[in-house]
Amino acid sequence: MARRRCLALASAALVLTACSTEPVDGPASGSPQQSAEPEQTASPSSEPTAEPSTPAEPEPEPEPVSSDDLDTGTAVAAVQHLAGRIGPREATSRAFHRAADWVAAGFERAGYDVERQGVRAPAGVSWDGVPVPAGRSENVVATPPGFDPTEPHLVVGAHLDTVPQAPGAEDNASGVGVMLAVADAAAGRRTRLPVVFVAFGAEEPRGAPEDHHYGSRRYVELMSARERSAVRGMVSMDRVGVGVAVPIGSAGDGDPLQRALLAAARRLGVPAVPDPGQRSSDHWSFVRAGMPGARLGSTPYAAYHDASDVPAVVSPAQLRRVGRIVLAWLAPAPR
Fold first, then answer.
1. N or C of the chain: less Cβ packing under 10 Å?
2. What is the value of pTM for the model shown?
3. The domain over range 69-330 is classified in CATH as 3.40.50.11440
């Protein structure tokens, strides 16, 4: 019987041991069956209640970029550093690569991912017969985090190099300075499409008419067919700190990108003039590869390609005009 077996085990072990009151062979006839202590069950009121799930708060959408976001001081400081401290930046020189390091650091501080593209520049003859050696130049390319080059995007560029004899305040620290100011303003803001910023190397001439634009030609050469078709517009800022009206150039007259930039200037009340047949800047590398491109800048000035092209030549007011046009072009359409 179960009761006898349990008592025997308890006596032998000299301890009180819980055991089953169920008989091994079944209960004795006429003996009441002893049941084990009832299993504790939670009452309905004590059951854990699942907290209702609260949907995660959506990330707030970034504010749209505005032409009023431009900090002209960023552009002015770049002109002073590149032309006033570093000075002439021939495309293969140490000075050029110091300038490229400085620009890359500025992009990184603003939160962009930075890539350096090597560019081969041939030996030749620069402006006024000054010889230039063969060597390595580079493009500094800044993209927003998570950028996909096969998706629709815009490109804003400016060449970083100079002819050997000029510190290049207007040509083209002015363009690089405005590009950096625009990149700072656009960082973390909503633009109508993602924007790539490029400081091009080896734009200045190295001989015959086609011996220039090596940096932008290299950039285009490295693009796949899908990447080229994703570019919705490329703007080159080249000599943008002189004058009171902003030249807006295109390879042809009245192309859609030129019209869009002129319209942006009109909305802002910024004086601008069309400059048709314009092929003498890095936008031309994009246009001849089938992409829309335009140039801002090109007002004539006395210090062009000269040692007198120093920061005092550049007008902060003109830098601001150009930067505001670019930001207005980048801004999303009002909702």
1. C
2. 0.83
3. no
